[in-house]
Amino acid sequence: MREDVPTIVRFVYELAAYEQAPHEARATAEDFERDLFGPAPAARVLIAQDDATGEPVGFALWFTTYSTWLGKPGIYLEDLFVTPAARGGGHGKALLTELARIAVERGYGRVEWSVLDWNEPAIGFYRKLGAGPQDEWTVYRLTGEALAELGGA
């Protein structure tokens, strides 16, 4: 919901700090307003709340992908974050369970995401859920000046 935008911004910046890259986070509330709640949403967000207080304690930001090999859409989980004080309370599992439910309900073929190789707590958590690494693939990224140059700007 639109009223969650300040919470989403806060969680994104907390996640960037946790991932030791606070200087890379530049997204604004206006970016999320436009891209999550505009006429053509680029992504969707789930918010986890504390059962006792109703306060937001985490989020999952995701968007659909398409697998040509499966011939089906999928879900790419861009960000999963639970505040440090709320970790271990089942919120991360609840967010991933909801994403899996959405994928199954819609007939999607997969849910996938990236994790930093040093983030052992997250890796252990994902393995417990039955997720496995795709070690044979290397992620490439085109951004900044290289993107502008290749795109003709």
SSE diagram, text form:
Elements: H1 5-18, H2 29-37, E1 44-49, E2 56-67, E3 72-82, H3 91-106, E4 111-113, H4 120-128, H5 144-150
Parallel strand pairs: 3-4
Antiparallel strand pairs: 1-2, 2-3
Protein name: GNAT family N-acetyltransferase
Pfam family, one: Acetyltransf_1
Keywords: Acyltransferase, Transferase
Structure write-up:
This protein has 153 residues and is an alpha+beta fold. The protein has a single domain (2-150), classed as Aminopeptidase (3-Layer(aba) Sandwich). Helices cover 36% and strands 21% of the residues. It contains 5 helices and 4 strands. The protein has helices spanning 5-18, 29-37, 91-106, 120-128, 144-150, and strands at 44-49, 56-67, 72-82, 111-113. A 4-stranded mixed β-sheet has the order 1-2-3-4. Helix 3 (91-106) links the parallel strand 3 and strand 4 (111-113). The radius of gyration is 16 Å and the shape is globular. The N and C termini lie far apart (34 Å).
Distance between the ends: 34 Å
What is the CATH C-level name?
A: Alpha Beta
Radius of gyration: 16 Å
Task: Tell me roughly what share of residues is in helical segments.
Answer: 25-40%
Biggest sheet record: 4 strands, mixed
The CATH topology is Aminopeptidase
Widest sheet: strand order?
1-2-3-4
**Tally of helical runs:** 5
**How much is the average pLDDT?**
96
Give the count of structural domains: 1
Global geometry: globular
Report a brief summary of the structure.
This protein has 153 residues and is α+β, with helices and mostly antiparallel strands. Helices cover 36% and strands 21% of the residues.
